[in-house]
Amino acid sequence: MNIKECKRCGTCCSKGGPSFHFEDKGIIDDGHIPAKHLYTIRKGEPVRDNISGRVIYAPSDIIKIRGQGNSWTCFYYNEDEKKCGIYEYRPLECRILKCWDTREIEGIYGKSLLSRKDLFSKVEGLWELLIDYDERCSYSEITDLIRETGSRKRRRLPGKAAELIEYDNTIRELVVKKGNLDSDLLDFLFGRPLSVTLKTLIQI
Ligand code: SF4
After folding, report:
1. How close are the terminal C-alpha atoms of the chain, in Å?
2. Which among 86, 128, 138, 182 is placed 20 to 30 Å from 189, CA to CA?
3. pLDDT tens digits, 44-54
4. Distance in angstroms (rounded) separating the CA atoms of residues 153 and 15
5. What pLDDT digit, counting tens, does each position of 89-101 carry?
């Protein structure tokens, strides 16, 4: 079959939401996509590359639209109507993706990715907190730790990782309770919890 136009099969929307590029900043700034529908893959976090299918380490922040429940299907995809719930404001990757010719999307893949710094560096207090968190819970250091201790072979996390998971859980609880932060924003501001991502890290 020679496909030359979108048949609205929904396959691309079911494989996961798009990554945001700098060009998409206005969609978030103007509230067309609320922050609570986003999550961040932090620098160094293991992630499956949609094009090669291999697991790679995120080169920088990758901000994405959440999935639906436990599935990767984009939060805004309406399965029954085969429709995008934010079609007018869909991000760049969704606008240029043509499943029958992926050259255009491959051309921007991993380039000018939007980061939390682009969005929050001027928010006093919050930005300093995020920098401190990223330093303490740096994926490159955790990966080195797992490598050095041979934890991957034993499929068990080293003791220091357990301390980091506890720190991560505590800081999330604190910003929700004392900072009155909506808990739905945690995965966007701090990335996914270490208790989830570190399990993946020892399995790859
Ligand atoms: S934003 Fe819309 S077009 Fe893009 S993946 Fe989600 S449902 Fe599909």
Report:
1. 36
2. 86
3. 998 877 767 78
4. 30
5. 999 999 999 989 9
* pLDDT tens-digit readout, 159-195: 888 899 999 999 999 999 999 999 999 999 999 999 9
38 CB less than 6 Å from ligand 1?
no
Q: 139 in ligand 1 pocket by Cβ < 6 Å?
A: no
The residues spanned by each domain of the chain are: 11-116, 121-203
Beta bridge partners of 74: 67
Q: Which of 37, 36, 3 is closest to 17 using CA atoms?
A: 37
